[in-house]
Amino acid sequence: MNPSTPKERSIKNWLPPTSFGALRQEVNDLVENLLGDSMPNFRGDQVPRVDVSETADFVEVVADVPGFKTEEVSVDLADNHLILTGQHPEQPTASTEARRFHRIERRMSSFTRSVLLPCPVDDTRVEAELKDGILSVRLPKREDVRRRRVPIRGAESTGTVTDPGVNF
């Protein structure tokens, strides 16, 4: 097998997980790769896929929640986790007695997805929007965790050499 193929690289570069969290992530990645878009959790429920990104000022979580209305979805924050929940109201199907279903996959009736955030956020300024089946949550970072550039004092700026042992 050509060592540059993705399958060869993934097998060759795999190392055993060193913690339970790493093992859980390995199993989740395996299940996701095998099942594609219909990613179930271990209870068999379907959960929305999410993208988590970060800038200097905010964290953004984007989730696919097709078919859900704004009033059927909730967004909560707890212990540095974003918790997404969706619940469709029960809808009777027309003449189910005369129909024999072989498979029902089209619609999630409910979901809960918890996402660990990469840093603390300002929970008073969170914004969420649901449009065309895509839920976007923008979470501003707390001021005390935002990245800041620290000025460096040295011989060029003060005319004297700074003692490395001096506290600013």
UniProtKB/TrEMBL annotation:
<dbReference type="InterPro" id="IPR002068">
    <property type="entry name" value="A-crystallin/Hsp20_dom"/>
</dbReference>
<dbReference type="InterPro" id="IPR031107">
    <property type="entry name" value="Small_HSP"/>
</dbReference>
<comment type="similarity">
    <text>Belongs to the small heat shock protein (HSP20) family.</text>
</comment>
<dbReference type="InterPro" id="IPR008978">
    <property type="entry name" value="HSP20-like_chaperone"/>
</dbReference>
<protein>
    <submittedName>
        <fullName>HSP20 family protein</fullName>
    </submittedName>
</protein>
<dbReference type="Pfam" id="PF00011">
    <property type="entry name" value="HSP20"/>
</dbReference>
<feature type="domain" description="SHSP">
    <location>
        <begin position="41"/>
        <end position="155"/>
    </location>
</feature>
